[in-house]
Amino acid sequence: METKRMEGHAAESPDRSNALKSGTVPCHDRTKEARLALEEAPGFHLDDEGFRTLLQHFQLSWSGYRRVRKGVKRRLGRRMALHGCMDVEAYLQKITEDPSEERTARELLTVSISRFFRDRKLWSVLREYFLPRWAGKSEQEFRVWFAGCACGEEVYSFKILWEAARTLELRLPPLALYATDMNPEVLERARAGKYPPGSLKEVPPEWLQDYFCLVETGFEVLPPLKGSIQWRLHDFTADAPPLDVVDVLLVRNNLLTYYLPPISGPVLDRMLGSLRPGGLLVVGNNEVLPPVNTPLLQSPLCKCIWVRQAEPAGKDAPKS
């Protein structure tokens, strides 16, 4: 689950949609006006019962929203008021009749709370154990998919680890990062690479100096760090994986936190179809995997990391 902001609900042409998915055009022109209108609008008070009803419609988890419930309810209440929907039933009817409004409601239900190097042990294990093992083994492109990348903090965190390892003369293969999110506005913010100081509190001082510059609102990622990243519009609950094969799949603090197992299990299995045997699945520190058919083994070094196993020959794969 990725975003805080809403996408405008005007219908878009197939050509424009395809261009957005390929990351070839900016997307702020169709989101900011709608977002500002939403922020300035008076809101309908959405109570917990109504919020539960909306979550059930989208098969989302009540417990997953326990820390962010207030802000999400406020956004939804403002959106309902803009449409003159003064109860949840009226808004559900609007969603049912208007697919673009359903998409907007899903975006309003998404959350973007992250920071650089969130869950420090994970990044230490990647740096100290896995990066040396990826070095020198292949000259083929090393592909990493960030599913639900939000504003890009973890994308740049991984890139910093990679670049720092190269300064230690590790012979790492060429790197390709694929960062996807369902909300075009947060992809724009991720491309810009500008963050408030609080997002960088886990960044070591030497890396802050090497990879960031000061700007009026905080810090900006330096241009060299923005290379080899492809930002793509993608809804992992509906779209096929953007790549046939990836070496690392990061799906952290979104799918497994906010969606119920009837959604999260099949979606995760579909995503894992692109993860090569021996590749890594990286999830949130407190996330629990739903039942999946893809064979996975949890790393003893970090509970966030699962290693995809080869399919057993001649029999069904065991569940993780």
Structure overview:
With 320 residues, the chain is of the alpha/beta class. Helix content is 39%, strand content 15%. A seven-stranded mixed beta sheet has the order 6-2-1-7-8-10-9. It has a three-stranded antiparallel beta sheet with strand order 3-5-4. A hairpin with a 6-residue loop joins strand 9 (296-298) and strand 10 (305-308). The longest helix is centred in the middle third of the chain and has 15 residues, at 120-134. The two termini are 22 Å apart. The relative contact order is 0.13.
Order of helices and strands: HHHHHHHEHEHEHEEEEHHEEE
State the major sheet.
7 strands, mixed
Q: What percentage of residues falls in helices of 4 or more residues?
A: 25-40%
DSSP strand tally: 10
- End-to-end separation in angstroms reads 22 Å
Features:
disordered N terminus, 12 helices, 3-stranded antiparallel β-sheet, 320 residues, single chain, alpha/beta
Summarize the structure.
The protein has 320 residues and is α/β, with parallel strands linked by helices. 39% of the residues lie in helices and 15% in strands. It has 12 helices and 10 strands.
Topology:
Blueprint: H1 14-22, H2 32-40, H3 48-57, H4 69-82, H5 88-97, H6 99-108, H7 120-134, E1 142-147, H8 153-167, E2 175-181, H9 184-192, E3 194-195, H10 205-211, E4 212-215, E5 218-221, E6 229-233, E7 246-250, H11 255-258, H12 261-272, E8 275-282, E9 296-298, E10 305-308
Parallel strand pairs: 1-2, 1-7, 2-6, 7-8
Antiparallel strand pairs: 3-5, 4-5, 8-10, 9-10
